[in-house]
Amino acid sequence: MRENKVALKEEADLIEEPSERLIAWMKVIILASLVVLSARQFIFEPVEVHGKSMMPTFEENDRIILMKISEIEHSDMIVFKVAEDRNYLKRVVGIPGDVVEMNNDHLYINGIETDEPYLEQNRKVAEQLGYSQLTEDFAAVTVPAGYYFVLGDNRLNSVDSRILGFIKEENIVGEVKFRLSPIEHLGPVK
To answer: Where is the catalytic site (predicted)?
Structure first.
């Protein structure tokens, strides 16, 4: 009789063990899901590029990763909300307190001419199309506290701060940090 009780207990242990293992795996999966969802909500977000305003830096349907927790600086590329269902991708040229001016196709920040090497290809295209300059002049503007001034890399085809005005810091979704596709451009974005 005692042998039967021991055998039954061993059999019960064998039955409980898989369900305990299953519960442990379920806990791991739930925890991992919570970590990923939290990271997606508060730290990073994948985005697909729509539009041509950042060409050739980004093309239509490129996939990028945004960091939601980031200090925004000059030349950073950001995604920001303009309307509930409308996001834009642009390059930051003015941070709070900056004086931004475009004169004779040269960008000046706080009175200092700023090099924009990412525009070289677009400058050549503009010249071939008969444009004397890539970016129309605009008078000096001071970026207020809590706002940013942004421009698209494809200056001839970009709705940016020249049209939208200053971008509220609270409307910034995140800074572009990584490109997922196309695969030949996979890697960190600078």
So the answer is: 53, 90
pTM given for the model:
0.79
CA distances from 10 to 3, 13, 18, 76 (A): 10, 5, 13, 64
Query: Do the beta carbons of residue 153 and residue 122 sit within 8 Å?
Result: yes
CATH 2.10.109.10 fits 44-188, yes or no: yes
Evaluate if residue 8 carries a pLDDT over 60: no
| CB-CB contact of 90 with 152 (8 Å) | yes
For the segment 87-97, what is each residue's pLDDT rounded down to a tens digit? 999 999 999 99
Q: How many angstroms from the chain centroid is the CA of residue 122? A: 22
d(CA 70, CA 177) in angstroms, rounded, equals 10
Predicted confidence (pLDDT) per residue in 125-149, tens digit: 888 999 888 999 999 999 999 999 9
The DSSP secondary-structure symbol of 176 reads: E
Contact 187, 177 (CB under 8 A): no
Please determine, for residue 66, whether its predicted confidence score (pLDDT) is greater than 70.
Answer: yes
* Complete DSSP assignment for 21-84: HHHHHHHHHHHHHHHHHHHHHHTEEEEE--SSTTTTTS-TT-EEEEESS----TT-EEEEEEET
* Residues forming the active site: 53, 90
Asked whether 61 and 67 are in contact (CB, 8 A), the reply is: no
